[in-house]
Specification:
This protein has 7 helices and 14 strands. It is an alpha+beta fold and about 300 residues long. It has a single domain, classed as Clam (outer membrane lipoprotein receptor (LolB), chain A). The chain has a 12-stranded mixed β-sheet, covered by helices on one side. A hairpin with an 8-residue loop joins strand 12 and strand 13. It is globular, with a radius of gyration of 20 Å. It starts with 5 loop residues before the first strand and ends with a helix.
């Protein structure tokens, strides 16, 4: 079952104990990518083929799954899974439901580094509670730089195992989890009912100058419709927009990805926590349970 398209929480959690000390507040983050617009034109002037010529007759099953959309998604998956290392930055707008039932959007930024299948580092800031997450293939560590607490536990296995365990225990994980797994294509196409190639769009990258031409794709899985923009030259994901049609109010989630670096030589210490600030150690419960509390003003509104 895919993680990106399921409700999730973004990242670190030191522990319930940390929560009780005024540190990490729980927040839910949704990982099912989705809809923004099943519409007409895309930015570069490419238009629907149907506008220029009638499409040949196809069976309903064939028409629902556009081969070009699937092929483009598969090329992205292969680029990510074949990389020896990945480094990227992410900016997210994540919906969180307040006690009054209102959806609140929280803004977060992340820096992500992955090497092979067994090493991961994530730094998250913004509205989300600041945390650093380390996994070196042997130990998972979550560190709160503002509260100077950390939690750790032995955890052998892969990044896939860490993500799956977090979801199994708490239903929470990273908002970009599905591009960190060994086979993104397999995860993202599970339960797929519709795939559409929209056209091309030009993006300004998160850093640097110039622009990036992307392929714009739309997919529909059970309960979620999602769009993704993938670079035409580097085959890397640039943005994902998802709408959860199976949830009241149909909340939307957006993450922008950029500053990509592939196959860098990384220092081993990148993935190992070192307690240089004399941080207090607390009990480890769930490495991905964190977030800023829903604003009190919003919580009080009906």
């Amino acid at each position: 079952m895919f993680k990106f398209l399921r409700p999730l929480s973004v990242a670190m959690s030191c522990t319930k104990q940390l929560n009780n000390q005024g540190g990490l507040m729980k927040m839910r983050i949704f990982l099912r990518w989705i809809l923004c617009v099943m519409v007409f034109t895309v930015i570069t002037g490419t238009v629907w083929a149907a506008e220029t010529a009638p499409a040949p007759a196809r069976s309903p099953a064939t028409a629902a799954l556009d081969a070009r959309a699937l092929d483009t998604l598969k090329l992205m998956s292969e680029k990510l899974s074949q990389a020896k290392s990945l480094r990227f930055e992410a900016r997210s707008m994540v919906p969180v439901k307040s006690p009054s039932g209102m959806w609140i959007s929280l803004y977060g930024t992340s820096k992500v580094v992955k090497e092979g299948a067994e090493k991961l580092f994530v730094e998250t800031r913004g509205d989300f509670f600041p945390y650093d997450f380390f996994f070196d293939g042997k130990t998972v560590t979550a560190f709160s730089p503002t509260k100077n607490f950390y939690a750790e536990k032995a955890s052998t296995g892969t990044v896939d195992d860490v993500i799956e365990e977090a979801y199994r225990e708490e239903g929470k994980s990273f908002p970009y989890a599905d591009i960190l797994v060994a086979d993104p294509y397999k995860v993202l196409t599970e339960g797929l009912v519709r795939a559409v190639y929209v056209g091309q769009s030009t993006f300004r990258p998160l850093s640097g100058s110039g622009s990036v031409v992307t392929d714009h794709l739309i997919f529909s899985n059970q309960g979620v419709e999602w769009q993704i923009w993938i670079g035409t030259e580097d085959r890397l994901p640039r943005m994902v927009c998802a709408t959860y049609s199976d949830r009241e109010g149909e909340p939307s989630y957006t993450v922008e990805l950029g500053d990509w670096k592939i196959d860098e030589v990384l220092a081993p210490e990148t993935f190992v926590y070192k307690n240089t600030t004399e941080a207090a150690k607390v009990e480890f419960r769930n490495p991905m349970q964190q977030g800023r509390g829903v604003p009190s003003g919003a919580a009080g509104q009906q």
